[in-house]
Amino acid sequence: MEIQENNQLLRFTTAGSVDDGKSTLIGRLLYDSKSIFEDQIEAVKTSSEKKGFDYVDLSLLTDGLRSEREQGITIDVAYRYFATPKRKFIIADTPGHVQYTRNMVTGASTANLAIILIDARKGLLEQTHRHTFIASLLKIPHVVVCVNKMDLVDYDQKTYDKIVEEYKQFASKLEVKDVHFVPISALKGDNVVERSKNMPWHEGPTLLYLLENVHIASDFNHIDCRFPVQMVIRPHTHEHRDFRGYAGRIEGGIFKPGDEVKVLPSGFTSKIKDIQLNGKPIPEAFSPMSVTMTLEDEIDVSRGDMLVRPNNVPEVEQDLDVMICWMNQRPLSSRAKVILKHTTKECQAMVKEIKYKVNVNTLHREEETDQIQMNDIARVSIRTAQPLFYDAYRKNRQTGSVILIDAYSNETVAAGMII
Amino acid sequence: MGQYYLSHLKELESEAIYVIREVVSQFERPALLFSGGKDSILLAHLAKKAFYPAKIPFPLIHIDTGHNFPETLAFRDALINELGVNLVVGSVQKSIDQGRVREETGVNASRNALQTVTLLDTLEELKIDAAMGGARRDEEKARAKERFFSHRDEFGQWDPKNQRPELWSLFNGKKQMGEHFRIFPISNWTEMDVWQYIKEEGISLPSLYFAHERDCVVRDGVILANSDYISLKPDEEIKKMLVRYRTCGDMPITGAVESDAKDLDKIIEEVATTRTTERGTRADDKRGETAMEDRKKSGYF
């Protein structure tokens, strides 16, 4: 294997249920990219034999917890890693059942790309709608639709074309920007890593080629400068007596020394003196770099504040409209008090009104609802105790996202995307 | 420049630094669990970067089984000195002397499981509310489901089926009195990433990781170093072998690999072509299919 030190990282999610071949596809990607070790294969072979299977069940590679292995299901998000000479990949492998919407949302929140599997024999199903809706809700920048099990429909182009057409029609109602289609057989390996000899009519690339080449450099917002301050660094040593650095991660735009910046919420302006990490100067800082910044003037800045450019400020509001995915056993009811986390800021908040619930299968709005259950997706309005500095989620996934925490149990009860 | 994207190593570095800074901001008494292995050395290095020019604002905790490689201890002390941080040592021998735990017996006896008690006692004594560790999700299948911020109840237990969802990079470190968190800033790194980063950054490591000659005994296919902590079976014999270590645990349970990789380039080449997992040389993981999950639930690293 060729070793590269400068390749990019692509995070993708796969949603699917037991029978649509998701585990086989992941197994295929890991196996063909030589990311499965001999002792792992040995362990899976032994387990398969113990269960009385006459084949090697690759799904055992991804099912990690005792209860999952016993029940043959995936409960939680599992993370898998593989690399090719071109890129490093992180797979968030999530189960695709309705009751696991919350896991799909979790996996999707950090993904650049979503793989959606469709069984060629069955065409578009309810779960295809659900997976696509979640990809669009979480604004995953790229979607690859794999029409799987092509071997079971005799590699028929018409079947494939029909599914592609149907999917395009459906997706046009949603916000999915960059969609690709690949006819595959995960079991036989057609068009996963190697080009299929059985489908000469397919002119597009293989799945792996797409994963290796899809343009991800623009997935981050490099236009609107946003720097939420994580902490203030003050060494209090003789050598760095006056040092006062603001540590954090760039969540949007490009910052350079000399740039004028405005501090929110105080509104004071200053200039960036320098940007560094570990004492090494950084000429241009952009998302997702963790850096330490110093300013020309001594002004009051602390955790939860945000540095922006004076001519490009985010929304500053206490009333927000948010799409939420509810993640807790206890239902949400109207006027519930919660703790809200947004960038490095945290404050009290109240869910003032539940506007409607989305049926994730039909995408219909259900307006008459006053309770939100686990795995529900709903539009709510929230009032925060302090103003938030935010962008719409569609503009910036970092400064547009929140989580809600139950003040008594401390559990994370909802994921929210600001509209 | 003009190229506005990061290499995968820089992106992983940035993610880890973000997590470490989040820990210091959200918790009152964090600490870094330091084993002397390459992953915890890497973590200490990332912590230094996160707070420079200030010093690392938390102590390093080493759970000393008394069965360490002498190289590990020498390296640890030199690193502590260089970073100017506090070191706290929790001693398994002390836990044994106090009757908190009982030593295992038999030829395969190890102090690996005993560490959990010493670890939890040490965390409680220092009132640590966030213990950072160098565990990675690619190491083992139970770890593949671990969160960056992993909640532990008042008994230090992990409840894998009831974990908090973790979205974007909004980490929820809220807890009741007496509970604590385990935090894994390098969750997303693979063994290869660690080695490539160590090379790129010029991080020094204990000599154990590089090929050297050593007196060894081969037991059940695992190459173990001969030491005072190992009792030989009658048919076993000691031989000189050229070996190196892929992980650094206790002397009696950490297996070496035969290797002539004397520098980082050679090691990276070896990691790229090797066909067994890193922990494949760890006897402690071979105690059953869910050995790691079971130990983690009770509070292991």
UniProtKB/TrEMBL annotation, chain A:
Keywords: ATP-binding, GTP-binding, Nucleotide-binding, Nucleotidyltransferase, Transferase. Its EC number is 2.7.7.4. GO terms for molecular function: sulfate adenylyltransferase (ATP) activity. Residues 7-219 form the Tr-type G domain. InterPro entries: CysN_GTP-bd, CysN_II, CysN_NoDQ_III, G_TR_CS, GTP-eEF1A_C, P-loop_NTPase, Small_GTP-bd, SO4_adenylTrfase_lsu. It is an enzyme of class 2 (transferase). PANTHER family: TRANSLATION FACTOR. This is sulfate adenylyltransferase.
TrEMBL record, chain B:
GO terms for molecular function: sulfate adenylyltransferase (ATP) activity. Residues 30-255 form the Phosphoadenosine phosphosulphate reductase domain. Residues 276-301 have a biased composition (Basic and acidic residues). Belongs to the PAPS reductase family. CysD subfamily. Its EC number is 2.7.7.4. It comes from the Bacteria. Keywords: ATP-binding, Nucleotide-binding, Nucleotidyltransferase, Transferase. Residues 273-301 are annotated as: Disordered. This is Sulfate adenylyltransferase subunit 2. InterPro entries: PAPS_reduct_dom (IPR002500), Rossmann-like_a/b/a_fold (IPR014729), SO4_adenylTrfase_ssu (IPR011784), Sulfate_adenylyltrnsfr_sub2 (IPR050128). The lineage of its organism: Bacteria, Pseudomonadati, Bacteroidota, Cytophagia, Cytophagales.
